Amino acid sequence: MEKFLTAFIDEVKVYVRAGDGGDGCNSIYRDRFNRQGRPDGGDGGRGGDIIFESDVNIQTLLDFQYRQHLKAESGAHGGSNHKNGRRGEDLHIKVPPGTVIKDAKTGLTLRDLTVAGESVVAAKGGEGGRGNSRNRPREKGSPGEEKTLALELKLIADVGIVGFPNAGKSTLISKVSAARPKIANYPFTTKEPMLGVVKVHEGRTFVMADIPGLIEGAHEGRGLGHRFLRHIERTKVLVHLIDIAGVDARDPSSDYVALNNELASYSKELKAKPQITALNKIDLPSAKINLERFKEKFRRLKVYPVSAVTGEGLKELITAIYKKLKS
Fold this sequence. Notes:
alpha/beta, 2 domains, Rossmann fold, five-stranded mixed beta sheet
């Protein structure tokens, strides 16, 4: 089970600098038989690279809040007697799978590290300078690349739960998986995404992501909408969780329409994803009449009435999600 035990950081900027190349050596060898001397300066070593690697054991970008300047080792200078300088060590930086690495200045995506163990050289080390042993003037090493990078984490999950605040998303994921998000009877209880592994039956599972509640205007960034919506861009299926009881004086039908509008406005790809509509809180008294009204208004829409609190209807919902994933 994937569970965040520390602060969930999904967006940081870091300054990286690869190692400089070592200088070539300017050396003349002389002995009693060779008074004039001959050049014997070795080459400088190449600077180390900055390499980002995805690691399944890393779940957040929290470390980079405290490590915002990253530098690889420079190459050693060349020596006399044709001794070449040692190459600088590469700096390997581990990030969670799903991390997008961008050049902060240009916005260009350098790599999207979606697969565990995948890596990318973000900054190349400088070349070592040539020594004078080739009967040419010695050269200084070239500087390593330096740049400011933007790291963005997009969670990798099979299923994403979307809904307005207080729809019961956290209760649902805690009921069907081992995830234990904070749950309370007020909006915006969930302030960071949560992953849970859902067991369908022996040997068959899928990963579900609960993202904080959206509000109208989320596609424009309201309520950190952009930050939260990007976490479901990689999902295969979306579960629309609607509060069918109309708690907080919400209208379930309007919520369904508004939620779809937010997804479509954020990206066409997100709107085109397969969707399953779950109508939550059917255990509450006001749910029955709202359920009939909802079915009447959206006659062609297949819905799954559930109660994340009592567990009613959850088995059917999980089976439907699994079938949708496999279709």
